[in-house]
Amino acid sequence: MTDSSSSAEQLLAQQARRESNARTYPRSLPLAIERADGAILEDVDGNEYIDCLAGAGTLALGHNHPAVVERMEELLERGRAIHTLDLTTPVKERFVDRLLESLPDAFAENANVQFCSPAGTDAVEAALKLVKTATGNRSMLAFQGGYHGMTNGALSLMGDTAAKEDVPGLMPDVQHLPYPYAYRCPFGLGGEDCWRTSAEYVERTLSNPDSGLVDPAGMILEPVQGEGGAVPAPADWLREMRRITRERDVPLIVDEIQTGLGRTGELYGIEHADVVPDVMTLSKAIGGGLPLSVVVYDESLDVWEPGAHAGTFRGNQLGMAAGAATIEYVLENDLEDHAAAMGDRLRGRLEETAATFEAVGDVRGRGLMLGMELVDPDGEPDSLGHYPADGDLASAVQSAAFDRGLVVETGGRDGSVVRFLPPLTISPARIDTVAEIVHESVRAALTAGQDRAEAPA
Q: What CATH class is the domain 8-64+335-454?
């Protein structure tokens, strides 16, 4: 039985006994959280951590932001409904107003909104159903390195094959195309040649009657691949994907579940390229920390019959209240600009770390969606001169950072990328502290690895 005096160690042991083997974060981040405020987490033992995970990018304003808490308290104090299926309320209409105001005008002016079950992966499933219904086609175009969720259709789109190997019955007819991952270019090319060749490959594939690809229902992509390792798509490549899909009447789905609402230094990641998609999937930040997901799409695709897509918890009024408050705060305070400035500050400091340690191979990303790829300098470099990815070192850096009071995520190829997704409200002073901890954590991880290598057998 749990009581208020339980230690973090006791609670973590209890969790391990009772929860699914599929749990992930507690394995690398042994936290039992007592309270949270802004960018700070405090565990039940009184230890404090700077949170650069922020609910995998969900907490745009950080933990328990007053604007969000006040709006939720107001809803409860007034006796508002908290669950309404898809029946409307003033709270819901306010959320839709704010959401459409935040979107690029050229997209919002012809947009319809579908509320889904509350996770981002549910929005992806709805988007797949939408474009398949609208086009009458069944195949999908996705990208290597992509991540769109863990339900059946979304998992089928995933680039990471390890996550899919033991899952039977995945959605067929998914073509995984080369994403312009500049540091690990799928064509072994450097500079602009990487994205140009990727774009040419996509266009040739779609134009080739012998490609084996039947007419696609849609293309889905991330403006910055998140779980794939904070890999930004070049703006010119995004514009090419829009041109190629538009010329072939292929709906373009942009997954903004992690990039949306200021995270990349623009309100939406696609705005770095000034591209208007046909469909956008949104979750995470738009719920203000509560479960909420939507699909926003061009009204020309809305050929659904009533009841064609549903979900019991698509009427989460607390999520809509929190989401509207979050969107309003982001817009009123230009948090996308703050994210860009803080991202530049952190990236500059991380590049100093890369200049110090050969094991830091690449620093990349946009805004406050950054990644630092760890490599093995003793390995054989690839054709671009880049050393092999080192997931073990990334895990060691994550662990060393945790010991020093910093929560970060890992991802990317072989888990080799240390990822940074702090609240968009994070201060310059705290950014500097994050950078200092990361620098010392890389040093500590490398020293520990050297000590292990030199220890007698």
A: alpha beta
